[in-house]
Amino acid sequence: MPVLLEGSCHCKAIKYTVESNTPVPYALCQCSICRKAGGYMGSVNIMGNTKTLKIIRGEDKIKKYTAVKTFDENDIPKERWNSERAFCPECSSMLWCYDDQWPDWIYPFASSIDKPDPLPSIPEGAHLMAIKRDSCSPTLPIPEGAKAYQGYPPGKGIEEWHKTNGVWVD
């Protein structure tokens, strides 16, 4: 049964809703992009159903960033990733990430979710994942109890991570 997530940026210029079958903040992404945009430890993502995304307010304000994969010797972008990150240009809040590799899913940043408050806890027997550790310093901490992955966890795709109660369980 999907849960309706209500989200916004910090300045409330942008508000949105999206349904999620997995409203648990389960994945701490520690890739270089999430650490630059979200802070030292990275960002926590939730999985939402793309077709249910509704912009309540501020659609004209949303900016999107497609991260650079490689730069040339003058720091000019050479190649970009597929994913795009939506954010508010006023307060810089990250809203969601979308990658057309997985068109059914959109990934709201847990930090943008207002309701439900609090978000559901990770079920007993499951764990937080610290993912994309291959692009960060090995000295970057892994939260206590989290399982670390150099890239993504095993499976055919992101939707495969949700085996029990909406989170990945080994």
Write a structural description:
This protein is mainly β and 170 residues long. The protein has one domain (3-156): Metal Binding Protein, Guanine Nucleotide Exchange Factor, Chain A, CATH 2.170.150. It has one helix at 32-38, and strands spanning 3-8, 15-20, 22-29, 43-49, 54-57, 63-71, 77-87, 94-98, 105-108, 113-115, 129-131, 147-148. Strands 6-7-8-9-4-3-11-12 form an eight-stranded mixed beta sheet. A four-stranded antiparallel beta sheet has the order 5-2-1-10, with no helix packed on it. A hairpin with a 6-residue loop joins strand 1 and strand 2 (15-20).
Topology:
Elements (H helix, E strand, L loop, with lengths): L2 E6 L6 E6 L1 E8 L2 H7 L4 E7 L4 E4 L5 E9 L5 E11 L6 E5 L6 E4 L4 E3 L13 E3 L15 E2 L22
Parallel strand pairs: 3-11, 11-12
Antiparallel strand pairs: 1-2, 1-10, 2-5, 3-4, 4-9, 6-7, 7-8, 8-9
